[in-house]
């Protein structure tokens, strides 16, 4: 934006791009952005959204009564005590963008982008503080990602691990929720713009939009593998597993079924372990037509070991535990290509697969490139030791999406995200009351991963390294306790108990829809010819 454009925009003067903005907003078909796969956010989010974003980010899309001056870097004087003279919610701005900022109440407006671990911790930390908070998320719910694999393997309901973000108002009156995907940001105008065309002004901005699956440029991976990062993806994976089983009952009894899990981190290990439980504990009861031994689970990992962040003895425990469960481990092996019928690994070896689960690596969302923020390692937003975005006043980035300069890259885990969110809220509180704050200090508490029933590894500060049943019980306790909302804790506890306490009698998988299976007449006749030629003759 040129200085002239900026000035004219601030003055509410028409600029040429405003017409583009109106056209872009009016001319686009409805897009359920939350249904657009992360993996393809740049690829599949359609040009419409991008055009809207571009138009929205252009000058003149929003008239700001406060002059749109950037506030001084976290100084109380410039930090937003002046209330922005926002338009009424829903009121049209000059460029056809509806301003969804709260009505000015004479106090600063904090916008939080992303209601994950980091964003919610920040919002909670601002409870009772003299600010207006707007929490924006592309979903109306928070997802507890560490238990997504339990949804994908039919042990938990999706509702057990998701939490309605609007219910945050039960205990916090200074927050309101806005559903939408943030597509662009204008830090000169101090606005963020959503895919639906709404524009929201901020005095302070906390960016906590997390990350998404990283396919590392492997050909075919985005198209043919199934990532596990969102609730919809977990449900798609679960339904695919049961669709393959139902199909096999009708058309595939004579062939082997294969699932390949890509990635030997916690998600890959947990997923592979849970799939073996489904196979070994349930299949002989629920799918007597199939032979469990003909269901193969393979885990492919680029490193020569599993669970990279753990101590070597715990990695070794996980390896043995998975092997005991019959997982075919391909360590020190890279996936070169994913095809509709399998994966190419190592030196052009083809592994057939009915399902390929992608549990390998994360990266920031493509659209962060439109947010006018500095990006560092892995595209993460660079911050200083106070989690302030480099070069921007009153803008913070926390959780998976941010990275501190130098060698202090925190792990992309729930704990750093939570602690970062809490810290930023405390920092804002301090600034608003004129106090000084020290830099962010992350306290690592430890790491856990489970392989399956009675088997887990735990590396907890102050405790010896743990494996087996004790680690597994700790893993369950920590995960159930960490869920949001008592109902989710009870429901999860109940479903895990139904699964694990009644291990040999509990085969009640939580299932969804599977497509109609069409009998393959040719294969059927072949099978009859081979096994019951007498039937064919008659
Ligand atoms: C399968 C899986 C298992 C995991 N297991 C563990 C574990 O056992 N232990 C552990 O510590 N960590 C685990 N993690 C990592 C942990 O979940 C993350 O580190 C943590 O969620 C990061 O928190 P966050 O707030 O930065 O991001 P998230 O929790 O991902 O939240 C980001 C939020 O931003 C929203 N959002 C994204 N883009 C936009 C946008 N453009 N506009 C509006 N909203 C947007 C999203 O909908 C989401 O609600 C796991 C992750 C996965 C995927």
* Shape descriptor: elongated
Question: What's the CATH topology name of the largest domain?
Answer: FAD/NAD(P)-binding domain
Total strands: the figure is 27
CATH class division of the largest domain: Alpha Beta
**What do we call the CATH homologous superfamily of the largest domain?**
FAD/NAD(P)-binding domain
Bound molecules: flavin-adenine dinucleotide
Please characterize this protein's 3D structure:
The structure is a single chain. The chain has 15 helices and 27 strands. With 538 residues, it is α/β, with parallel strands linked by helices. The protein folds into 2 domains: 239 residues, FAD/NAD(P)-binding domain, CATH 3.50.50; 142 residues, FAD/NAD(P)-binding domain (3-Layer(bba) Sandwich), CATH 3.50.50. Strands 1-2-10-9-8 form a 5-stranded mixed sheet, with helices on one face. Strands 7-4-3-11-23 form a 5-stranded parallel sheet, covered by helices on one side. Strand 3, helix 5 and strand 4 form a beta-alpha-beta unit. Helix 2 runs antiparallel to helix 4 and helix 5 packs parallel to helix 11. The chain is elongated and about 90 Å long. The site of flavin-adenine dinucleotide (FAD) has 34 residues, from helix 5, strand 4, helix 9 and helix 11. The site of flavin-adenine dinucleotide has 34 residues, from helix 5, strand 4, helix 9 and helix 11.
């Amino acid at each position: 934006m040129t200085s002239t454009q900026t000035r004219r925009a601030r003055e509410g003067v028409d600029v040429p791009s405003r017409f583009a903005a109106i056209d872009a907003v009016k001319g686009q078909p409805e897009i359920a952005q939350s249904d657009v796969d992360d993996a393809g956010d740049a690829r599949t989010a359609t040009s419409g959204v991008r055009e809207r974003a571009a138009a929205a980010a252009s000058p003149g899309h929003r008239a700001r009564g406060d002059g749109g001056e950037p506030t001084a870097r976290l100084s109380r004087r410039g930090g937003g005590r002046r209330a922005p003279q926002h338009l009424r919610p829903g009121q049209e701005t000059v460029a056809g963008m509806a301003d969804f900022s709260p009505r000015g109440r004479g106090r600063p407006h904090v916008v939080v982008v992303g209601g994950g671990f980091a964003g919610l911790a920040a919002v909670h930390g601002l409870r009772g503080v003299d600010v207006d908070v707007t929490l924006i998320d592309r979903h109306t719910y928070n997802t507890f990602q560490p238990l997504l694999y339990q949804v994908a393997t039919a042990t938990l309901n999706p509702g057990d691990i998701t939490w309605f973000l609007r219910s945050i108002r039960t205990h916090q009156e200074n927050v309101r929720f806005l559903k939408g995907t943030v597509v662009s940001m204008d830090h000169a105008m101090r606005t963020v713009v959503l895919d639906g065309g709404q524009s929201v002004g901020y005095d302070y901005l906390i960016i906590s939009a997390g990350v998404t699956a990283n396919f590392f440029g492997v050909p075919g991976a985005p198209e043919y593998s199934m990532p596990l990062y969102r609730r919809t993806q977990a449900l798609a994976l679960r339904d695919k597993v049961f669709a393959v089983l139902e199909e096999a009952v009708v058309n595939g009894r004579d062939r082997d079924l294969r699932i390949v899990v890509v990635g030997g981190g916690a998600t890959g290990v947990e997923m592979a372990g849970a799939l073996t439980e489904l196979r070994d504990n349930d299949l002989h009861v629920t799918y007597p037509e199939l032979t469990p031994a003909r269901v193969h689970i393979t885990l492919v990992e680029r490193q020569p070991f599993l669970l990279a962040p753990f101590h070597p003895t715990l990695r070794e425990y996980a390896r043995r535990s998975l092997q005991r469960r019959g997982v075919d481990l391909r360590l020190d092996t890279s996936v070169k290509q994913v095809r509709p019928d399998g994966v190419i690994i190592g030196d052009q070896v083809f592994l057939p697969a009915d399902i390929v689960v992608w549990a390998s690596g994360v990266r920031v969302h493509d659209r962060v490139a439109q947010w006018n923020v500095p990006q560092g390692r892995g595209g993460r937003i660079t911050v200083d030791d106070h989690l302030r975005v480099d070069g921007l006043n009153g803008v913070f980035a926390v959780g998976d999406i941010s990275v501190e300069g130098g060698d202090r890259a925190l792990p992309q885990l729930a704990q750093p995200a939570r602690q970062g969110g809490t810290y930023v809220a405390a920092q804002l509180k301090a600034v608003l009351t004129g106090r000084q704050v020290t830099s962010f200090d992350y306290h690592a508490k430890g790491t856990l991963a489970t392989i399956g029933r009675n088997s887990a590894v735990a590396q907890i500060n102050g405790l010896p390294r743990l494996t087996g049943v004790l680690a597994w019980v700790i893993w369950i306790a920590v995960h159930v306790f960490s869920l949001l909302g008592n109902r989710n804790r009870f429901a999860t506890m109940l479903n895990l108990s139904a699964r694990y306490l009644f291990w040999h009698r509990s085969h009640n998988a939580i299932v969804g829809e599977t497509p109609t299976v069409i009998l393959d007449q040719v294969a059927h006749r072949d099978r009859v010819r081979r096994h019951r030629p007498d039937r064919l003759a008659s």
